[in-house]
Amino acid sequence: MSSIDLYWLPLGAGGRFVRLNGIVYERFKSMVERRPPRDLYHTALEVRVPEGRYVIENAWPIPDLDPAARGVTVEGPVGARPLGRSRIFRYEVRRWLEGTIADASEAVDGPRRLSDDDGVARRILEVTGSVPAHVWGRDELRIGEMWNSNSVIAWVLAAAGLPAAEIRPPEGGRAPGWSAGLVVAELSGLTPLGSRRTTASR
Fold it and tell me: How far apart are CA 116 and CA 128, in angstroms?
C-alpha cells in the first residue's frame, strides 16, 4: 500500500541554537506585522510505496561526504551562491530509502496523511530529483519570501499534483517559506495560476 504523510516539526526541535534564532526571528517579524508571535514549523515527508519507505526532507548543514547513503538528489547554497563551494554552506534534499526524520517524535498533530494514491506517491519520488537549487535563506526571485526547507516540501507537493496551497500548519503556527515553494512551482508551469494562495507561511 502506498501513502504520503506530512510531518509538522517545531522549528529547532532538538537544537537550541536554531530554536532560539527562530524565536528571535518570529518576535521581530510579528512586531513588524503588528500581530502576536506564532509557533514556527518546518516540514518533512514520509512516502511509502510497495518497494519501501522514503523520507523526503531538506537538511543543512551537510553532515558528511557520503550523500548516497542519505539518498541526496539535490544540493544548493546557503546564504549566498559563492558560499556554496563549502560543504558547511550547502543544503541537501534527500530521498532517503528507509531513512529517519530526526525530530519525528516532536511532530505536532502526528503525521498528516495527504494521500494513499500510488501514482502520486511515485510522482513525489520522481520530482524530488528536480527540486530547484535556489539559495537557502534568500529571496532570489523577489517573490516576497525566502527559500528554505518548507519551500522545498511545498514545491515537491505542488509539482506532484497535490493541492499544497490548501495545506495549513497546526493551529497557531506558520511555516515560513511555504508560499515561496508554491510560487516557484507556479512560475515553472507545474501548477495552475493562482494555486499559491495559502496561509501556511503567514
Answer: 18
